Amino acid sequence: MTSSIKVNPVAASRLPEVDMDNVPFGRVFSDHMLVARYDNGQWQQAEITPYQAIPVHPSISALNYGQSIFEGMKAHRSPEGDVMLFRPEENFKRLNYSAARMCMPQVPEEIFLDGLKQLIALDRDWVPTQEQGSLYIRPLYFATDEYIGVKASESYMLCIFTGPVGPYYPEPVSLLVSPEFVRATIGGTGSAKVAGNYGAAMYPDKLAKDRGYNNVLWLDAKESTYIEECGTMNIFFVIDGVVVTPNLTGTILQGITRASLIQLLKSNGYRIEERPVSIYEIQAAHREGRLQEAFGAGTAATVSHIARIGFNGYDMVLPPVEGRKLSKWVGKRLADIKFGTGDDTFGWTVKV
Predict the structure, then answer these.
(1) Do the strands 302-311 and 173-178 form a parallel or antiparallel pair, or are they unpaired?
(2) In which element (H, E) is residue 338 found?
(3) In this model, does residue 224 exceed pLDDT 90?
(4) Which of 127, 220, 277, 351 could crosslink 135 through cysteines, CB 3.0-4.6 Å?
(5) What are the Cα distances from residue 42, in Å, to 26, 36, 55, 100, 220?
(6) CA-based Rg of the chain, rounded to a whole angstrom?
């Protein structure tokens, strides 16, 4: 494998066709994508090509047996016009963690990180301003063997594509607790970013939306008692001034935004508890007036306020966003680091 990346640029950009002030989330894609293939026991030369359809056979392992993982990242534009990635090395590590769990070859750093920077540099004009949003980055890694047999594939494709996005949740969200369905079990793939995790969640998510909620709040599979995460983000609660979030048990995605918020809060003197969080504890805290805030954290969702949580026919309505000092502060502090409007004392941002 060579570390050089071939570039086949578009003849003309599609950017003039896009209204960057009105971009729906996940519907518009930038001019280029990075493609790298794994064949014959080694990675082949990566290439940046125009964004386009990928021809695949119906027999490939990813379609038949779900050997597919992905990542979610963002690039942001500073007031000075710099384009910055947020903790890309953490996404690289998590991609390879997921790959190991799914019996897929490790992706080399020179393909993922170097290729990503080159791709973003080529499409830097697609990165919106802070007022418009950010550039969402989707690394997708899947098996491509043409074989109807249950075994790990011997060939793979990594594709990284991007697109400008606005807010994933423009308004505070409502969550419905799902005692009937589970997202993950101990020994499963819950801590990896596996495509099948999201496919299995779509039916419960639809049922929640049919009842007027935005998403599902998952409970543990064993006791149906302990909160794990929302379908699109990790979750935090503020009870009596203490920030509480479920601990990582192997069934919860190791969120990069989650880890960043914990570090930010701890470094500013906030008390953080990572521990099992019972839905009954949250319900009791709400009834007693001690549940002050609840918010989600994720790359797409960033820091999203939770307006209400439905459980067993009871709606826990949270206080108005205007009075939520902690989540508003940490959300702004994180945004300031990402967009270069505040000091990055942790060295989290990488200029492209």
Answers:
(1) parallel
(2) helix 325-339
(3) yes
(4) 127
(5) 32, 11, 21, 16, 39
(6) 21
Q: What is the dihedral of CA 170, 70, 188, 143, to 10 degrees?
A: 150
The C-alpha atoms of residue 265 and residue 269 are separated, in whole angstroms, by 7
Q: What is the pLDDT of residues 293-348, one digit of tens each?
A: 999 999 998 999 999 999 999 999 999 999 999 999 999 999 999 999 999 999 99
d(Cα 289, Cα 293) in Å, to the nearest integer?
11
- The answer to whether the predicted template modeling score (pTM) of the entire model surpasses 0.90 is yes
265, 272 in Cβ contact below 8 A?
A: yes
Give the total residue count for the chain. 352
Nearest to 236 by CA among 143, 301, 188, 315: 301
280: tokens are: 């009954």
Angle in degrees, 0-180, between the axes of helices 256-267 and 88-101, rounded to the nearest 10: 130
CB-count burial class (<10 Å; 0-12, 13-18, 19+) for 17: exposed
- Which alpha helices (H) appear in 219-255, and where do they start and end? none
